[in-house]
Amino acid sequence: MSDTALDAVRKRITELDSQLLTMLAERRQLTNEVAETKIRHDIPVRDVKREEQLLFRLIKEGKNVGLDPHYVTQVFHVIIEDSVLNQQAMLAEHANPGSTLPLNRVAFLGDKGSYSYLATQKYFSRRPGELVEMGCQSFAEIVQKVEKSEADYAVLPIENTTSGSINEVYDQLQHTQLSIIGELTHPIRHSLLVSQDTAIANIKTLYAHPQVFAQCSHFLAELGNVEVKTMESTAHAMMAVSELQRDDVAAIGSEAGGSLYGLMAIKSNLANQKENHSRFFVVSRDPVNVPLQVPAKTTVIMSTVQKPGALVEALTVLKDNNLNMTKLESRPITGNPWEEMFYIDFEGNLEDGPVQTAVESLKKLTRYLKVLGCYPSEEVSPTKVAAAKALTQD
């Protein structure tokens, strides 16, 4: 293909990309109009049957024009997820009149480029109002910013699929009056970041947050004799490498974050588990009302009486009310040796009958119970279709 012909093909690709963006924007606007109808008529956000029918039809149509079914499925999973999350945000805004702020002052760990920064950008991209970023140096400082009304919201990492729960955040939640108002799950893709192109064998010092080192322990073991320096945040690690401008130092962080500091990735996918995700809580001074049409989660903390089977008895309350527990975490109670505080996440809305019944029952069974928050669930399960059927039927 000649250079002239190649330029013509690339020009056409550019034109098609622009058309795709225009059509995606139009599609999103139409789904927002659907959300307005759902608000007026109390219709649930998700219609799984319709989603399955849509995906089934698109797979068949894709086959007719030579598109791989798995490619079509992946593309429309992203589109459907975007639609669901946008509609949930609209319904939540409608259920909380007066909550929309012209400025969203948000406290998070680290500076630009940290994973908390990226999660903050992701969550508030769907919310109206200008985002004011407030990087902090510790989880305690983040919480204090909101408690003192210096920030409106805080974004806190709560657990990671590789390194597990972040205990310091659980401890902060135990002692604050802030409420959980949202959650999100963000993919964590660790890369080895350097300021100058160099070989991995040349790296003598590595900077990262302690949680990141825990998530990449297998990679660290392979490196051998490398000095490990823990930093307050991923952003601090990247800043250190950027300022040093040496070919024997590196940071572990996201490639997107590293680019903000002029760093390049020389190796990617460093985490022990390749499907590495972190879950974040969004907290504020006031709780939110979650519409019953929106899938919700509730988080509580409790301490049980000191008798055999007390925890099992409490958890049975969730089972009896058909509530699906998604997380159980224990933390020591300060000043009470060998006693534990239990954190529980379960699917359900605090305004719904079964959840209200469960909470009242738990209050009677436990020594202490506190609802930390009821919030929209942003874990959008991918729409499933009978793949074999979709691939074989004409």
TrEMBL record:
<dbReference type="InterPro" id="IPR036263">
    <property type="entry name" value="Chorismate_II_sf"/>
</dbReference>
<keyword id="KW-0057">Aromatic amino acid biosynthesis</keyword>
<feature type="binding site">
    <location>
        <position position="83"/>
    </location>
    <ligand>
        <name>substrate</name>
    </ligand>
</feature>
<keyword id="KW-0028">Amino-acid biosynthesis</keyword>
<feature type="binding site">
    <location>
        <position position="38"/>
    </location>
    <ligand>
        <name>substrate</name>
    </ligand>
</feature>
<dbReference type="GO" id="GO:0004664">
    <property type="term" value="F:prephenate dehydratase activity"/>
</dbReference>
<feature type="binding site">
    <location>
        <position position="87"/>
    </location>
    <ligand>
        <name>substrate</name>
    </ligand>
</feature>
<keyword id="KW-0584">Phenylalanine biosynthesis</keyword>
<protein>
    <recommendedName>
        <fullName>Bifunctional chorismate mutase/prephenate dehydratase</fullName>
        <ecNumber>4.2.1.51</ecNumber>
        <ecNumber>5.4.99.5</ecNumber>
    </recommendedName>
</protein>
<feature type="domain" description="Prephenate dehydratase">
    <location>
        <begin position="105"/>
        <end position="285"/>
    </location>
</feature>
<feature type="binding site">
    <location>
        <position position="47"/>
    </location>
    <ligand>
        <name>substrate</name>
    </ligand>
</feature>
<feature type="domain" description="ACT">
    <location>
        <begin position="299"/>
        <end position="376"/>
    </location>
</feature>
<dbReference type="InterPro" id="IPR001086">
    <property type="entry name" value="Preph_deHydtase"/>
</dbReference>
<comment type="pathway">
    <text>Metabolic intermediate biosynthesis; prephenate biosynthesis; prephenate from chorismate: step 1/1.</text>
</comment>
<comment type="function">
    <text>Catalyzes the Claisen rearrangement of chorismate to prephenate and the decarboxylation/dehydration of prephenate to phenylpyruvate.</text>
</comment>
<dbReference type="GO" id="GO:0005737">
    <property type="term" value="C:cytoplasm"/>
</dbReference>
<feature type="binding site">
    <location>
        <position position="51"/>
    </location>
    <ligand>
        <name>substrate</name>
    </ligand>
</feature>
<dbReference type="GO" id="GO:0009094">
    <property type="term" value="P:L-phenylalanine biosynthetic process"/>
</dbReference>
<feature type="binding site">
    <location>
        <position position="27"/>
    </location>
    <ligand>
        <name>substrate</name>
    </ligand>
</feature>
<dbReference type="Pfam" id="PF00800">
    <property type="entry name" value="PDT"/>
</dbReference>
<keyword id="KW-0456">Lyase</keyword>
<dbReference type="InterPro" id="IPR002701">
    <property type="entry name" value="CM_II_prokaryot"/>
</dbReference>
<dbReference type="InterPro" id="IPR002912">
    <property type="entry name" value="ACT_dom"/>
</dbReference>
<feature type="binding site">
    <location>
        <position position="10"/>
    </location>
    <ligand>
        <name>substrate</name>
    </ligand>
</feature>
<dbReference type="Pfam" id="PF01817">
    <property type="entry name" value="CM_2"/>
</dbReference>
<feature type="domain" description="Chorismate mutase">
    <location>
        <begin position="1"/>
        <end position="91"/>
    </location>
</feature>
<dbReference type="GO" id="GO:0046417">
    <property type="term" value="P:chorismate metabolic process"/>
</dbReference>
<dbReference type="GO" id="GO:0004106">
    <property type="term" value="F:chorismate mutase activity"/>
</dbReference>
<keyword id="KW-0511">Multifunctional enzyme</keyword>
<keyword id="KW-0963">Cytoplasm</keyword>
<keyword id="KW-0413">Isomerase</keyword>
<dbReference type="InterPro" id="IPR036979">
    <property type="entry name" value="CM_dom_sf"/>
</dbReference>
<dbReference type="InterPro" id="IPR018528">
    <property type="entry name" value="Preph_deHydtase_CS"/>
</dbReference>
<comment type="pathway">
    <text>Amino-acid biosynthesis; L-phenylalanine biosynthesis; phenylpyruvate from prephenate: step 1/1.</text>
</comment>
<dbReference type="InterPro" id="IPR010952">
    <property type="entry name" value="CM_P_1"/>
</dbReference>
<dbReference type="InterPro" id="IPR045865">
    <property type="entry name" value="ACT-like_dom_sf"/>
</dbReference>
<dbReference type="InterPro" id="IPR008242">
    <property type="entry name" value="Chor_mutase/pphenate_deHydtase"/>
</dbReference>
